[in-house]
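Q: What structure does this chain adopt?
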Amino acid sequence: MKITSLKTYCIDCYRTNWVFVKVFTDEGVTGIGEGTLEYKESALLGAIDDLRHAVVGRDPFDTEAIWSENYRDAYWRGGPVLMSALSAVDMALWDIKGKALGVPVWKLLGGRCREGVPCYANCWFSGAREPSEFAEKAVAAVDLGFKGLKWDPFGKAFRQLSPEAFKKAIKCIEAVKSAIDGRAEILVECHGRFDVPTAVRICEALAQYEPYWVEEPVIPDTMRALADVRSRVSTPIACGERLYTTQQIQDAIELRACDYLQPDSSHAGGITGMKKIAAICEAHQIPFCAHNPSGPVANAVTLALGVSTPGYCIHETLFDDVPWRADVIDEDVRFENGLMYPSDRPGLGIELSEEAAAAHPRAEHWLRHYVGTLTDIRPQETRFYYHGTK
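A:
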């Protein structure tokens, strides 16, 4: 079997654009990968195109060689653009391998360590502005069965928080914690907003609410700043979505910068890269829990890793999604009693509709974190993309 061509798709999904790659072979088996890189779609599409010369003609089963050689030959190594391109192609090759062998990818990764992966929800808060609105939406999410809720309550703050913004954020956290009444964990997202003293103050204020973690509390330009914050606070710290290589992960661990590591399969090297990172985390007893707020292909990959990786901790997943998700990607995702289950179909268990993809072309979307519209992440109509019951 040989790779014959690659085709990319950039698809509007309201808050950003999904970027998928489809890899074709001379035996008719195809695979889908995802490298969704918010607000850098043009660069990513170009980086994937740059990989064609090194991928076409290769055996898709040679994932390790293809990954390693393309990482090496980029010369300008690492970074989100190159690594997202590698990630997308790598996922597609694993999808091809599973389909060619007639088995789901999770079986190729060692089989099941668990039946399903415990989930916390992201995007459950769509449209909320006031603490009472967050609390109401939190109850609805927990009633559905999610074991944790993650959100950013810090408005449009950067570096510091005004007294009013600080008070409102704490009230929001208090309202959600009280509303769910111990039925689920709370995970507080900071999106790398704050300087060191502000991050320390926030973490200390949150300690009484016992968050599962505080994520990226400090501006992420240097891992040493995060290590400094962690050394001063008692709340668990999470990071990793902006770490793209095994070397960066190793540095974070050696600096003791965090308690939980969250690399993203779309940016940290796809399945091949994530397996390397999972081994590093296991060697240091650091929980491995992938960042996963993007699209259906990344979710399928992350679920395959989640059920097959002993140290996998908790699965980030979207509460709901755009109504055309089911048109663009045929996926088989089951969610019951707070657990999400990967498909038993061959490969990643997904197929792309080119016609539906064309019906939702790329649109311009820009970062909302510092303009006060952070919770505007869904259209008025949404759908659950998973099936099952509590």
